[in-house]
Specification:
The structure is a single chain. This protein is an alpha/beta fold. The strands form 2 sheets. Strands 1-7-6-5-4-2-3 form a 7-stranded mixed beta sheet, with helices on both faces. The radius of gyration is 21 Å and the shape is globular. The chain has 14 helices and 12 strands. The chain has helices at about 5-10, 50-65, 75-80, 100-110, 125-130, 155-165, 175-180, 215-225, 230-240, 245-265, 285-290, 305-315, 345-350, 365-375, and strands at about 65-70, 90-95, 115-120, 135-140, 165-170, 190, 205-210, 270-275, 295-300, 320, 330, 355-360. The chain starts with a helix and ends with a helix. About 40% of the residues lie in helices and about 15% in strands. It folds into 2 domains: about 5-240, Aspartate Aminotransferase, domain 2, CATH 3.40.640.10; about 245-375, Alpha-Beta Complex (Aspartate Aminotransferase, domain 1), CATH 3.90.1150.10. α2 (about 50-65) runs parallel beside α9 (about 230-240), α10 packs across α14 and α12 (about 305-315) crosses α14 (about 365-375).
């Protein structure tokens, strides 16, 4: 079964009770039991809910994993998964990791005795050089947020296997439609399902998908203990959204390529970061491990004044946090996704005050180009 078909038929598609074409919203907190000695599969909704389970089964199939766990947000998925590590453990993390992940790693988990070393993950030698005897995991994004750097996921997973550690990959930008890190040898895939998987800017959710069942059970135990699972209403909406993932991503990618080519020639644009461009340093590696360049890119402008004018003057591309909706969203990493990083840290990573990130939606690309043009002046 090809992925386009799996998006529609990969998970539970019929309600077993009524024959409804889709799993309904089980908006319930508890379940009646009939035996003192043998509880049913469902007892309390913090642990299990049929609507959430249908969504988890669908995402597990799409990523090629043995198990998926759905969370109340992308950060809930990341933070809960990171709790599999213990005081004294060490992680190697890609340098320009999402700001929320950087925040929990550098403040909360460091306080718990779990340390991190941030490296340029485009250089496999840098990853290997950062591994210590106490290293237990490698945490990656490819492409990364917001500079769209590309990591050789196969190569990183091979390094991890040699050292007996696990590889975690945030796959939010690509989705399982375009990239499946488990097939490349990685161990855990993380998503902000808020973004392209749901695709309609009306749900906050996250996922962790694993190959190894025992690892999945460890994450599930922490999820249940912390109560970070996704609610049934949001599970239902995300099940609805994922069915159109292919058609949305195909059109958004097509629009993105048009806009990127136009921006490359614009007099106020000094750099464009997009793995679909042949001149991108990670172009060949990305093409070898993914089925498309995606619909998110970032670009740099000639001044802060131009940047401010673009962000405040865009009408079609919403100046907002997040990405991956049917509408285009333009973001300012220095004040949004990476605001938690100190300015000197942002500067070191190349996240400049003139950098903007654009998630391209389903509008006509000519209208988007005209809107960007008028905003920049």
């Amino acid at each position: 079964m090809k992925l386009a078909t799996k998006l529609i038929h990969g998970g539970p598609t019929v309600d077993q009770q009524t024959g409804a074409l889709g799993v309904p919203i089980y908006q319930i907190s508890t379940y009646r039991q009939t035996s003192v000695d043998h509880f049913s599969k469902y007892d309390y909704a913090r642990g299990d809910n049929p609507t959430r389970e249908a969504l988890e089964d669908t995402i597990a199939v799409l990523e090629g994993g043995s198990r998926c766990l759905a969370f109340a947000s992308g950060m809930a998925a990341i933070s809960t998964t990171l709790m599999i590590f213990s005081p004294g453990d060490h992680l190697v993390v890609c340098d320009d990791v999402y700001g929320g992940a950087y925040r929990v790693l550098s403040t909360i988990f460091s306080r718990m005795g779990i340390s991190s070393t941030f490296v340029d993950a485009t250089n496999l030698a840098a990853i290997e050089a950062a591994i210590r005897p106490e290293t237990k995991g490698i945490y990656l994004e490819s492409p990364s947020n917001p500079l769209l750097k590309v990591t050789d996921l196969r190569g990183a997973a091979e390094i991890a296997r040699r050292h007996g550690i696990i590889t975690l990959v945030d796959n939010t930008f690509m989705t399982p439609y375009l990239q499946r890190p488990l097939e490349l040898g990685c161990d855990i895939v993380l998503h902000s399902g808020t973004k392209f998987i749901n695709g309609h800017s009306d749900v906050i959710c996250g996922f962790a998908v694993v190959r190894d069942k025992e690892l999945g059970q460890r994450i599930r135990y922490i999820q249940n203990a912390f109560g970070t699972g996704l609610g049934p209403q949001d599970s239902f909406l995300t099940l609805r959204g994922v069915k159109t993932l292919k058609v949305r991503m195909d059109q958004s990618q097509k629009n993105t390529l048009r806009i990127v080519e136009w921006l490359k020639e614009h007099e106020r644009v000094t750099a464009v970061h997009y793995p679909g461009l042949p001149e991108h340093p990670g172009y060949a590696i990305h093409a070898a491990q993914a089925d498309g360049p995606g619909a998110v890119f970032s670009f740099e402008l000639d001044s802060y004044e131009t940047t401010k004018r673009l962000l405040e003057g865009s009408h079609l591309a919403a100046f907002a946090v997040s990405l991956g909706g049917v509408e285009s969203i333009i973001s300012y990493p220095a004040r949004m996704s990476h605001a938690s990083l100190p300015k000197e840290e942002r500067d070191r990573k190349g996240i400049k005050d003139t950098l903007v990130r654009l998630s391209v939606g389903l509008e006509d690309p000519d209208d988007l180009i005209a809107d960007l043009q008028q905003a920049m002046g």
